[in-house]
Amino acid sequence: MLDPASKGEFSEEETTEEISQLSYLQLSSLALSGDTAYSEKTSTGLPEKTGYPDSVYIMAANIFQGIRFENSPEKVLIKYGNEPLPSSTESEDESFQRLAYELAFSALKFQDILETMLIDSYIFPSTIIPDHLNSLIIVMLYDFQDRKFQARLISDNEESVAEVLEVENLLNSFKTKLAAALARCRIKHDALSIYHILPERVRNQELRASTLPLYAWINTCKISPEEVYHSLKKKGYNKVKSVLHVHNKVFAVDQHCYDVLIFPSHLKSDLLNIDLFKDYKLVFQDKSRSLAVHSVKALLNMDDDILMVNTGSWYTVAHMSVLTNNNASKIFVCGVQSQAKDPDLKNLFTKMGCKNIEILHETFINLESKDHRLQKVKVILLLPRCSGLGVSNPVEFILNEHEDTGLLKDFSQGGPSEDKLHVLAQQQYEQLTHAMKFTRAQAVVYCTYSVYPEENEAVVKKALEFQDHGTKVQSYRLSPPVLPLCSLKEIHLSTDKFFRMEPSEITNGCFLSVLTRERDPSETVSVKDVLARAAAKGLLDGIELGKPSKLEKKKKKSKMSLPKSSTSDSRGIQMKIAEFLSQETNASAHLSGTLTTKTSLPQKNTNQVGSSSQVRKSNKPTTNPLVPTFMKNTPPSRPYERTTNFVRPRPEDRMIALKPIEIVLPPVMLPFSSPQGIGSQIPTQHFYCRCAGPKTVMPGYLPTPSIPSRGKKQENLPSSLPRHPRPWL
């Protein structure tokens, strides 16, 4: 081992000064980077990090071994072995996995700098270290400099791992030389800290991750939104319109998804300890997945089934199940190759209250549209594997939505290579075209985390252009977004019928497209059919739909050659029609009591029977709209009142329904030359029947005629008034 002092490269005082400066710089850089473990510890009041358990170092070393960058043989500085380190049972713990992935990803971003520090500090090649421990040295060195080269605090209850203790002792013995090597590297790159050596896109990504709000959807199978609001309020959370730049205990409701709540990022540790999240009543998940399932929900009928492809997180499947809980829909999830996961998945879905999920072990490409299980599938939700460059926290994306840890390598460099992007786009195109081959499906929802057009618009447009038009089913077309557009920016981004969200301080980036089949011309639905369906579903409550009469049809034909009336005239006519219909309805309800009184009276002679049958005949509803209009506009008078006792009962009674068992006889036409003679032929009992009803004057109707007193002269009916002996013609 070489002695740094004998080489005269730096003095002990210079090293101490560098370490002091490095402590300040690293503290500021970590505050910008938004490291999850660091943020959680400082939020609880601890001034600095104290290290990880031994099992986390082992897991992180194995992850780094699989995702590290491999240099060309002539540039190899450190050789890594191929054998993984033995891990403990704690590796199955979700919290330990998250910490291990974060540590491995951080070491990956600074792999070149960490390797340079090991060479520059003379750890290599002066020290003989087995190759399979080099990955462990890299991840522990990153954590060592992250702790400002301070010793790790080890818990008494923690089980020690021999390999971890060996590497830790080695790094502690070289900590001064390692600190000096790091300082020289920072000066070489003219960087304020090693954080500023990263690509700008990676730095912006980590900055967004430190402030990105938390999104959680409400499990309405177990609790209502109102109950969630009340429970959060009892815990001290207040409902606000926006959680941006708010440091208090608040939450807001998302504008696109009514069942999604937004929380500030610093409240995650506190939220995980409340019962709402422990009992799966609230579930953390990225907003883009909620946008996808809500888009599918908007396209469903009550009994349509759904096929979900590449779901990633099982919470996405659960959210889709919750949204269709009141439907008869079934959700098929394909691609679960290991049947050993079935019990765990069923247990998870049972805890969340999901009952309509069926797991398919076939891959999506191997499924066929003729599969008898998929005959009722109408909507396919396709969540293809993508670069994911729209997300701010790559570790969350890998753990929740993707199983390919190799993508962390792309995240560390700010994006995938062109070859990798081409491979991903080709896979997405093949899956989308396969989804379009399901003949019974009527819609495909395509959603990605990517911001690259090669994975988004280009894939969709290519699939639409080269789709098979030879089948009997209708072709697919691009449909507008089914989600609300809440800002001018969203409207601008959706002008070409694609829904886009760019990465920002409040949300990750995502892309969403809806493909629907074109309408079959043979199944064209008229406006009347649409209104009839809406009325059947109760959507037109309070609005009556009437059929046009033959006279109205003739009027429509005659209007083809006439100039269009003004808007004010048409409005006046509509108001009159509405007023007339209202009067007709009120009159029919009022006169129902009068008809009951009439039919209960005994019939004493044949003349009365004849007159009664004439009245019954007049009960038939008239189809001539001129009759009520004429009666409404004609002022009543005593001569007219006396004569219309015989001629005009028909419009008044025409709305009363006849009994099916009665025989309706044709009316007896009598001459009108002698009004006095007509009055003498009508028996007095008829007038008694006519006066049995109420005498209230109906609006739009003539007043009920009264019995004339004896000896009072009755005036003749004016001959100028038109007569309608048969108004039903």
UniProtKB/TrEMBL annotation:
Task: From the record, give the transmembrane residue ranges.
Answer: none
| Gene Ontology terms: biological process | methylation
- Could you tell me where the Polar residues compositional bias lies? 595-635
**GO MF terms on file?**
methyltransferase activity; RNA binding
Q: Where is the composition biased (Low complexity)?
A: 560-570
Q: Which UniProt keywords apply?
A: Methyltransferase, RNA-binding, S-adenosyl-L-methionine, Transferase
Superkingdom of this protein's organism: Eukaryota
Indicate the segments forming the SAM-dependent MTase RsmB/NOP-type domain, all copies: 204-518
Q: Which PROSITE patterns match?
A: SAM_MT_RSMB_NOP (PS51686)
Disordered as annotated region, ranges: 550-573, 595-645, 702-729
Q: Which PANTHER family match?
A: METHYLTRANSFERASE NSUN7-RELATED
Similarity section = Belongs to the class I-like SAM-binding methyltransferase superfamily. RsmB/NOP family.
Q: What is this protein called?
A: Methyltransferase NSUN7
Which gene codes for it? Answer: NSUN7
